[in-house]
Each structure stands twice: as structure tokens, then as C-alpha cells.
Amino acid sequence: DIQMTQSPSTLSASVGDRVTITCRASQSISRWLAWYQQKPGKAPKVLIYRASTLESGVPSRFSGSGSGTDFTLTISSLQPDDFATYYCQQYNSYFEWTFGQGTKVEFK
Amino acid sequence: EVQLVQSGAEVKKPGESLKISCKASGYSFTNYWIGWVRQMPGKGLEWMGNMYPGDSDSRYSPSFQGQVTISADKSTSTAYLQWSSLKASDTAMYYCGRPSGGAAPGHFDSWGQGTLVTVSS
Description:
Chain A is mainly beta and 108 residues long. Helices cover 0% and strands 49% of the residues of chain A.
């Protein structure tokens, strides 16, 4: 199994802050990585796929980077609507997909 | 517009069987994989497995292999997740999702609203 390790688990930030979440894979996954945002009681929503491609309709303040084993999700200027939990997911292995454990972004 | 509409919340007793559903619309159901993801109370997302309705090919996470069955009805564009004998530890929210990319699946680009399953004696 490919393990995905996100850090931090919780992040306290203020509106306007630049926020960075990292995701590390236990082995190379090329660029087969997606980032999702989940709000309480709601289904996840994809933000970024293939490590750095912004999903249609997602604000440009979200960006993704990385390849191989190390990946980053950046929110350039945190907005009130961005307080949520974020998950990375690898889909490199043909159907041995795994999610990271999540990063909760909360008000400082 | 792609839509996945899941069946309603369920309350079951340990040992009972259950089948929950995910009805797809807005795309060719047989040309895309469909998957299931578990979220236990207060916890993260866990991929359970995917099925390709076009040929009924099913793939499971090792953690869920033998514990659940994923199936699909092409005539109604509906996917199912089934348990033969529920345990209290199956209490969770279950989401269906459509992997992008058709026959070569990628990230989940659409999600159902979730089905809450509660198993309690």
C-alpha cells in the first residue's frame, strides 16, 4: 500500500494568510495526486488534480505543486469560505488508492 | 450535468444485511468507473473500491475486500454497496464518487451527497 502523510493535521490561520499543506507519499506516485476540500456534513469537492491542474470553477488562490513523493497545496490568501478540512489522494496504483489523513484549517 | 443521488440514511442492527444505492445521471453510466468512500464519525476518507459498470469489473481496497460488495444495475444507472452482516464498526457516512477519465480512472470529479449508516443494537 502507498501511504499518504499530510501535515500539519490542524492549521490555525487568519483571513488573508498564505496557507501551505503538504502531502508525502511513501513511494513515487508521479503526479497522480488530487486535493479535496470538505466542509462539515458535505461531500468532498475536488480542487486540484494531477498535482497542479485546477478544477474548473475553483478559485485561482488555490494551487498545487510537486511530483514523485512530495506535494503541496497552497492557498495564496485565505478567505472565510476556505475554513474546511483538506485531503490529498493518490491514484497512481491501479486501484490501490489512498487518502491522506486530512488537514483541518481553522480560525486562529 | 453529472449527478449522483444516494439513498437515505439507514439504522440497522448488528448482523443485519444492507444495500445502499447511488443513482447516476448526466453521463454514460457504463463508460465510467464508480467508487465508494467511507468516512467514520470524526475521521478521514477511506477508499473502499470501484466498479466499472460496462463489464462489471470490481476492485477493492484490501481493507474492504470480502467485507462489502459493489454492484451496479446498468438498466437504472445505479450503483450499490452491500453488506451481508453489519457490525457496529460499519457505522459511518458512505459516499459514492465518479472517477474521472472514463475507462482509465483518475481523481473523483463528482460525488453523491452521502448515506449515513448507523449500526446499533
